[in-house]
Amino acid sequence: MNKVKSYLESILIARKMLAERNKVYYKNSNKYSCVEEFVLAKGSLHQHKEIPDWIIKGETKECFQNCFNNLLKFPDLVYCEGFALCQTLPVHHAWLLDDDNKVIDPTWWSLPQQSVEYFGVSFRKQYVLQIAASSGYYGVIDNFVEGYPLLTGDHTPDQYLIELAAH
User: CB–CB of 72/135 below 8 Å?
Assistant: First the structure.
């Protein structure tokens, strides 16, 4: 089983146990209780590839902006957001997919890609651009400015989700 997916499932179980114990944490009517639950429901495993020479290599800890900038310059790429594991724990991360649905990571470009695992959601370019313009931030899942519309279900899959073709 994918380590990132196992991690997300474990986090979700722990959050739900905590919520049950405290009866406070999940006092909302969101469709998804947290980012991890959304990614598990809508995401998939993505395979890495060596980073192409033409990609704009970005700064560490700026993954959302790095991917956004590349998406503007290379419109055939697909923006993905979810969780990636590079050393010890999966982190909320963004990357891009090429025409073969292989990961291009302009942030972790210096890491040996065979040591990185990616599990996330593929987003429509127009949706990514819209959220950046309306919120002033580059990431789309954890959109606190607009009240977490993906987690609440206010934004529907037909607005944001790209169904990837099998390769």
Answer: no
Please report whether residue 15 resides in a domain. yes
Cβ atoms within 10 Å, residue 99: 10
Paired tokens of 39: 């990614």
Lookup: tokens for 20: 């049950």
Residue with tokens 């499932």: 9
Residue at 165 is within a domain: no
pTM for this predicted structure: 0.89
- C-alpha torsion sign, points 148, 150, 155, 160: positive
Residue 152 lies in a domain: yes
CA distance 85 to 73: 26
pLDDT tens for 51-85 read 899 999 999 999 999 999 999 999 999 999 999 99
Contact 61, 108 (CB under 8 A): no
User: In this structure, is the dihedral angle defined by the CA atoms of residues 75, 34, 118 and 63, taken in order, positive or negative?
Assistant: positive
